[in-house]
Design brief:
six-stranded parallel beta sheet, Rossmann fold, alpha/beta, about 45% helix, about 375 residues
Length: about 375
């Protein structure tokens, strides 16, 4: 594509388009209104839940059908061929496997304006899969030769990846951005879901939106609930667990719930697409993770006016600032104290009053247009286009 065309064409490469933080950010970024950018999204695997949504929004989506976590010569050649056909101004990749595969395919197709995307926190990398660890090491070695820029979603993630060998000179931190028209206070959504979950209006409801994953540390949250109950501070409180694996057939999760005698308090919701309504249903959202990068769910909850408790991981504390409660990671007693303080504030002042500052903070610090402008600045720079 010639530089005389004022419109930038960005080709995105991502492992898949299922439900996840990177996928949701990609969706928000590519569907944000802009007359100066067109997007093509390439999923190395399948279309997941976002392919059709992207197509409805007018984004060109291609899927390569590769097996997740496995390198395929045929898939690599198909990606290289697609890049040559589409002639993008910039190739933007998302997450380790796509950074490696997409970066090498773009270089071999003659594209030099390549931007990698780091979404992982960089913490507890030893708990990642063997293939992820291998790809991480390869990316660190190639970071000085393949990408023209490396976009990190969080400052903490940038520092950790520099420490494992990534080229810090090519890094830029662009925080996730949120559409405050979609994530906003919704009394009707709150009423609908609490009725669906059989939670009366006067019952305090905390919740956690997170898939089943060791790094999300649901056991930390459940231990904190057990501590509140042991201290007779739980009252009528209920806890909703939302996300992939948050179902009764998850034997490991069910065993922890039974171990602490929390069956009557925990609501296993499973995955949901209506996350704004979910956040509105909660009185307090709790992030109990032992590792994060820039956790979307915290800012999404705050944008809905939901008070937040977070562990001191990644950029979580930076997101809540003085608008929430922070506890050390892997410290159930401290987490219980933070949850108790948040619920006490909600009981005294009301959920909406307590959560108002959080929504204002997201609006001022993490609005969608700030993220879009950040990416556009990077793309124009590496493509040699003046702003």
């Amino acid at each position: 594509m010639t530089t005389s065309n004022p419109t930038l064409h960005i080709l995105h490469v991502i492992t898949g388009l299922g439900q996840g933080g990177a996928e949701s950010v990609l969706y928000r970024l590519t569907t944000a209104s802009s007359q100066s950018v067109t997007h093509t999204v390439v999923s190395l695997t399948d279309g997941g839940i976002y392919a059709e949504r992207l197509r409805v929004a007018g984004v060109d989506v291609r899927t390569l059908g590769m097996s997740r976590g496995r390198f395929s010569i045929g898939g690599f050649l198909a990606l290289r061929r697609l890049i040559k056909e589409r002639e993008p101004d910039v190739v933007q990749t998302w997450m380790y496997h796509s950074d490696l595969l997409g970066g090498l395919a773009a270089r071999s197709a003659g594209v030099r304006a390549i931007s990698w995307g780091i979404r992982n926190s960089g913490a507890f990398l030893e708990k990642s899969s063997r293939s992820a660890r291998i790809v991480l090491r390869l990316c660190a070695r190639l970071s000085r030769r393949v990408p023209a820029a490396i976009v990190c979603c969080a400052q903490d993630a940038a520092e950790r990846h520099k420490a494992v060998g990534y080229d810090g000179d090519r890094m830029v931190v662009i925080n996730n951005g949120y559409d405050l028209a979609r994530f906003s206070p919704d009394p009707l959504g709150r009423e609908r879901l609490r009725k669906e979950w059989d939670v009366p209006a006067d019952v305090p409801l905390i919740g956690c939106v997170a898939r089943w994953d060791p790094l999300k540390d649901h056991e930390n949250l459940l231990r904190a609930l057990a501590a509140l109950e042991a201290e007779d501070k739980a009252g009528k409180m209920r806890c909703a667990l939302i996300g992939r694996g948050m179902t009764a057939d998850n034997q490991a999760l069910s065993a922890i719930i039974e171990q602490f005698g929390l069956r009557s308090r925990v609501i296993l919701v499973g995955p949901r697409d209506d996350i704004p309504a979910v956040m509105n249903a909660l009185d307090v959202h709790v992030l109990s993770s032992r590792a994060e990068g820039f956790p979307n769910v915290v800012a999404e909850a705050m944008a809905c006016g939901t008070p937040c408790v977070v562990t001191q991981v990644g950029d979580a504390a930076r997101i809540v600032g003085d608008a929430g409660w922070v506890a050390p990671a892997e410290r159930p007693g401290a987490l219980a104290g933070a949850i108790g303080s948040a619920l006490a504030a909600v009981a005294e002042y009301g959920r909406n009053t307590v959560g108002e500052h959080g929504r204002e903070r997201v609006q001022s610090e993490f609005a969608l247009d700030r993220m879009v402008k950040g990416y556009l600045q990077v793309w124009r720079k590496i493509a040699g286009r003046a702003a």
